[in-house]
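Exercise 3.2. Students should predict the tertiary structure of the chain below and write it as structure tokens, then compare their answer with the key that follows.

Predict this chain's 3D structure.
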Amino acid sequence: MSNEFFDLIDDLNSNDTELVETACRDAAILLERHVSKRYDDTEYKELFSNSFLYDFRLNKEGFKRLTDRLLFILETNEHCASIAAWGIGKTNDDSFSQKLIDSLRVYLRKENDEVVYQLIVSLENCGVADGLPLIEEVAITPRLAKSSEYAKGVLILYRNT
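Answer key:
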């Protein structure tokens, strides 16, 4: 693995919130490129905070390290939880569905509208079926205006399929 990848992991472990947010964004982009096999897509070059990451090819070990770290951030860093959830959603991997549901339960109790919204979006990418009962709860929680409206749309979409 490259030095840039290890620097990214270090940034994900930082106490500096801005650094963690930027690293989560870069991790999400790396995950998306890996999953979609879009390594030749030059548009990604401008998306990374560090252009050297554009040349990095994620492998199975790197995928696991990034997703483990994003899940840890999701569980422990409310300020960066939304962007960490976004990154997990980029994997389109249903093995993360239960962890996203567990996090949704926590952030619903905390009434964090932004994180709840992003968790529902990520669940759509990673497997929403087991989360529908909790999404129903979000839909009837008026204090979560953005998430509630989105949840209603998700329920309509998935109940009719």
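Discussion points: The radius of gyration is 16 Å. The chain is about 65% helix and 0% strand.
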